[in-house]
Amino acid sequence: MKNRLFIPLFLSALFAFVLYPRLHAEEHNLNGFIGQIQTSLANKDIAAYLGNFAQEIRSIEEESFKDKFDIFQMERASLYKTSESVLGGENAEVFLQALFQNSYSAIIETWHLKLLKVNSQWQITKKNIAGNVSSLYKIQIPSNKAERVESIEVEHEDIKLTFKDAWLFYDNIPNLETALLIIGKGDVRFFPSNPIERHQLKLSYKKEFLEDKLTYACLRFSNHFFHNNIKINKSPEWKDAKPSPEDREAAKAIFSKHYPRSFTVENSLNKELFSILPQGDEAVFGFRGDKHGTFTYVYSPFTDEEINLYRWKDKQIINLYSPTKSERTILIFWPNVRSEKLPD
């Protein structure tokens, strides 16, 4: 009886001893092939990159390669293996995430590759892009663009911000306005069109409106919003004015505090913070008042309550409602808040 049990156990152990090294070697060989693709992408070596693909799909991959690096002007690329490979003799399947980046934007794709071993070498016979392609941005303030202006007005639904003799720090995205930091002496007036919400303000501030002196405002908006809701008056006197290193450091600190609160996602591949672009009239304003502290005003047209006024001091929503005359519906993403990392 013991001998009959011993024989199957011995054969199983022998089978595992013989098979495991072979499977391990095949997996190692496949990882080496993926590394080969990564190296050709990192070096922008189109000939080496296309050599990984079967002849019949090389023209498609050549066009995709040129789109990324020539049209979208990506500067570097990385590949990440997202799951275990499926190995079956001369065939294999693998999922990869491709991250293409330049100094201000990124493209993320999930690749489903089907492979065939030809003359002992792996070759990609089919490549599918799984799901949606994500276009994201790496927004920075301060950038190379900053100017001192005579005045600036920002008006949106029930809120208005005005500054005089202020520094404007623009974002780093070329030919597109989506973020602006204003530092100077300003004012905010928020007057809800909803009477119930005015009563809510009166409970907190003994007035049906919120008024305060501002030291800064950090704005996120669409390019459309910038050209339609923001008025900037420039002065020839300050045409060549440049912010001091101290001004730039202050701008960096303020933007770093407010940026993660809206339109941002953390890339799971490298933990870097990326941004989506607001659309239409959607907007988020962060501002600090002398009397009442730091607030975030959110206009969120695809929600039932389009306007949200949030107070950071006690992490309270002060107002949440839809303006009586608003009929606009444009998507917004509520801020990605990490309050423990964002002191007021």
Q: State the end-to-end distance.
A: 76 Å
Q: Low-confidence runs (pLDDT<50, min 5 residues)?
A: 9-20, 326-344
Q: How many individual β-strands?
A: 16
Shape: elongated
Radius of gyration: 28 Å
- Helix count equals 6
Number of domains: 2
Q: What kind of oligomer do you see? A: single chain
- Quote the average pLDDT: 86
What would you call the structural class?
alpha+beta
Helical amount: 25-40%
Helix-strand string: HHHEEEEEEEEHEHEHEEEEEE
Largest sheet: 9 strands, antiparallel
Question: How are the strands ordered across the major sheet?
Answer: 10-6-7-8-9-13-14-15-16
Strand fraction: 35-45%
Summarize this, please?
It contains six helices and 16 strands. It is α+β, with helices and mostly antiparallel strands and 344 residues long.
